Amino acid sequence: MYTQALNTSDGDDRAVEDAARAAEFQARIDQDERIEPNDWMPAAYRKTLTRQISQHAHSEIVGMLPEGNWITRAPSLRRKAALLAKVQDECGHGLYLYAAAETLGTSREELVDAMLAGKAKYSSIFNYPTLTWADIGTIGWLVDGAAIMNQIPLCRCSYGPYARAMIRVCKEESFHQRQGFEIMVTLCRGTAEQKAMAQNALDRWWWPVLMMFGPPDQASQHGDTSTRWKIKRFSNDELRQKFVDATVPQAQFLGLTIPDPGMKQNENGNWEYSPIDWEEFKQVLAGNGPCNRDRLAARRKAHEEGAWVREAAMAYAEKRKSRQLAQAAE
Ligand code: 3HC
């Protein structure tokens, strides 16, 4: 009885201590302090950040696939050079984000293995095909435009390594968005066929891009905690609305029609859009999108074919470490 009582009181003391630390942590967040890797943090904060940052990283790497498909088919050397630079940037974004995720204690290998095993997500938007060159313009214009809308607030995320990674990423995203919009301007000022190709791409990408911001707020399972911990500064619906309001005038400038006949501007100047097909979103997240299988197969193949590079780098690092130890022992 006594031991149990002792354990109980130990247990109570620990619960009181944890509650006090959690309250102190929340006070730091409320004062807009940055949380750094060596700071105490609730396990749930660590877990949700590892989830979000790693999935963000997976998205950057998988996002290279649909665009990489057009590098050899770009219509000019200038377009090819811009697309090459963009795809290379996305790879770098993935590496910054894996590095940020690793500061939370999970290795990059574990994070990548989870994605390859289909246990971790990447953005739904990259499960759609790039059928024409106009898709490359639309991805830069809309997908990177949406990414900027979502990533700018993440520069003020409470977790230091994530926020700092975002600052560099956002600078490069603005080039991505601009080169995409320039492609769309060129096509819309080109032949009737080119303009029709641009409209067709907008028709296919518009709704999947709105889904990219995540489920509606009432269905967002992480939204509340992410907001309370200032990981998210705006809700999914708030960012979606900001994106729509910013993008409709751009489509009007291009002379393109947003594929939503029910869309109308309200008295506040916001563009109200029709209901989103969340069943499609659910299906894509369940692995039943147009390209889910291809994307995962391509990532698994690249990972297998790249094993020798990882092994060689590890062997070199081991050899160098033992040489340094031997020199230190001399
Ligand atoms: N695609 C895939 N999964 C999605 C998703 C999407 N578009 N939107 C939401 N989800 C998932 C969430 O991951 C979560 O599942 P999980 O618990 O298994 O992780 C579930 O749906 C519920 O959604 P929540 O709204 O509760 O989840 P979050 O609070 O994490 O919000 C998010 C979702 C807004 C995407 C948020 O995770 C986020 O801001 N992530 C960082 C930014 C990001 O990943 N951007 C997209 C791709 S990067 C990109 O576009 C690169 C550019 O260079 C092209």
Automatic annotation (TrEMBL):
GO cellular component: cytosol
Gene Ontology terms describing biological process: phenylacetate catabolic process
Stored InterPro entries: Aromatic_CoA_ox/epox, Ferritin-like, Ferritin-like_SF, PaaA, PaaA_PaaC
Domain of life: Bacteria
Alphabetized GO MF terms: phenylacetyl-CoA 1,2-epoxidase activity
NCBIfam families for the chain: PA_CoA_Oxy1
Protein name as catalogued: Phenylacetate-CoA oxygenase
